[in-house]
Amino acid sequence: MTVIGEFIKKAIDVYGFVTSEPDPVKAQNEVLKKLIDTAKLTAFGKKYNFSKLLTSTNLVEAFQQEVPVHDYDKMYDEWWHYLLEGHQNVTWPGGQKYFALSSGTTSTSKYIPVTDDMVDAIRKSGIQQVMSLKNFDLPADFFEKQIMMLGSSVNLIQQDDHQEGEISGISAANIPAWFRTYYKPGIDIASLTDWDEKVRRIAEEAPNWDIGSLSGIPSWIEMMLKEVIAHNRLSTIHDIWPNLQVYTSGGVAFEPYRKSLETLLARPLTYIDTYLTSEGYLATQKRPDTSSMALIVDNGIFFEFVPFIDENMDEDGRVRPEAGVLSLEAAEENVNYVLLISTVSGTWRYMIGDTVMITDKQRAEIKITGRTKHFLNVVGEQLSVYQMNQAMQVMQQQFDIEIKEFVVSAIRKNGEYINKWVIGSNKTVDNHAFALALDRELCETNKNYNVARSKSLKGVEAEVMPVANVYRWSEEFKKLGGQAKIPRVMKEEDFLEFEQYVTGLL
């Protein structure tokens, strides 16, 4: 073990020893107070009486009573469009240097403000993640190795007085100078916007690097690793990167991808989940004995929780104005919640679109359970993405396949509703048998789905096909790489167009 590696590891251990995890509730109260105080003279702060709120004896309650819940459309239509026009002090002090172009599962780009304070907060959260590595018992020489961060292009788009790009590109463009020695694929390759060219260049340069950890969305990491292996005629990625030990996942649940990813490895990695969104770095896994992530409660983000039940949501997947909203202090474990955030980028009581479950309240640990608009409940199925992922893991074992992507919709057939699934896999199986097994699994694990199958949901169909077909659709109609994700649930009209395209490739 080298001296440098030992020094870094010891520094991390010492930092962890002299610092302690904050009390989540106390930290959240302090974050909210600081957010409101900082933004009190903005247009938003003046409209919602932030100066007065600061005199309240119960700041959280006063804040919730005064400020309405927002989704993206409400924030943009009422506030953020002024930022694009060059106005200052709108929802956060100062002007606007960056906008993150949301590249999730919707087709329309969203412009999410990323302030200097948010860039700083993301950097600090990254440091928290690094410091938590002391809990994963990694050897000292790991801390000398390079980090492959596969994200969007760091070549941001200049628009008038601001720059635009995906949050991974904005974050990479602002990495500290000292970190660039460790960062791969490096700024030149990371600036490329064409996915195929970027992966080709990575494959060519791979023999020159000593990668210790990977970071990125599982599906795109897997595609990159396959290209490196094929180009360099390897058996596994460890033939060229023998010191690869850690994979930091983000964007989607990792478990559905584990089986297929591990076919590319000589040995399993240490897997660490993170929760980085266009709106901020929300959570990171801090210990190895759980797959849950700890909310970053002391770094510029205030969290709220709305019980994810029918009476709290409208038909478009938005939180109703009269819905009850809970702070972390009042929220409970093992309940499905819609997550709201208020941040140093000037998002206020903002519905990020994810649903989460608190798994350990004392540690403020959560699991992402799905998306508010990727929750299948057309005829009472009440299927969350979390439950779908669990079912897909069972199907992988039962049919000995790797399920890399899936999309489902409730569609009408002969005047009645069925659930239709498109499954992107490494090999095909009997579609009818797969549909029967998937239906049986969901009936056993979801009582609401079981009831729906006896009433309004008249059938289940599945089409298991090469995952390349799904990626071809993504490449043509969305894009490949970066933070791009395949939607899990589609509306009927969108699904039928998607299905026509991917089955046309068979």
TrEMBL record:
Pfam families: GH3 (PF03321), GH3_C (PF23572), GH3_M (PF23571). It comes from the Bacteria. It comes from Spirosoma utsteinense. The lineage of its organism: Bacteria, Pseudomonadati, Bacteroidota, Cytophagia, Cytophagales. Residues 387-493 form the GH3 C-terminal domain. Residues 295-361 form the GH3 middle domain. This is GH3 auxin-responsive promoter.
